[in-house]
Amino acid sequence: MLRLGFIPLLAALTAASFGAAFPQHALRKGCSLFKYKFLVPHETQAMQKMKQHFEDIMLLSDRKCNARLFHRKWNPAELSVPDRVMLVEAELDLVTAMLGLPADPSFTEMRQRPLAFLSQAREDLRGCMATGAPSHQPSGKLRHWLQKLQMAKKTETTGCLEASAIIHIFQVLDDLRCAAFQEQCI
């Protein structure tokens, strides 16, 4: 009889400890973002190939870019989980918009796989965000970065924003991993 009372108590304590370890206010319960923890090698290779092709094109062009969106004085690990989710959503919006721009045929073909992957990641992240929760107000660090992003969209050339997004694509993927798993990033 004592055993029957102990098992439900143990189950309740275990559930409570998991609930505290994974806050429910950031991402909806039951999300399937596991595929972003470790990228499939062919996805990583496609992104690396696209990034390298773009950097080769950039060497031949004379693009001057002042946008330093991804040169932050803080690390996403310093942000709360809801802030990290907001950060990666904004980053994915920028990257997918830039990859969706018209380009020369060789580059258009090369970026199709990364664009599809990142668009799916953005939709998965949005699908996992808590619905009906009070809207989160970003911290000062994130609010400043979001304002910087909006200003860059108004003042920088499309080519500059495209270059910034593609060159820092792996930073965006790292931020996605951190936001999706609500873990501390290195």
TrEMBL record:
Transmembrane segments: none annotated. One of its GO terms (cellular component) is extracellular space. GO terms for molecular function: cytokine activity. GO terms for biological process: cell surface receptor signaling pathway via JAK-STAT; defense response to virus; innate immune response; positive regulation of immune response. It comes from Phaetusa simplex. Residues 1-21 form the signal peptide. Keywords: Antiviral defense, Cytokine, Secreted, Signal. InterPro entries: IFN-lambda_sf, INF_lambda. It is found in: Secreted. This is IFNL3 protein. Pfam families: IL28A. Belongs to the lambda interferon family. It comes from the Eukaryota.
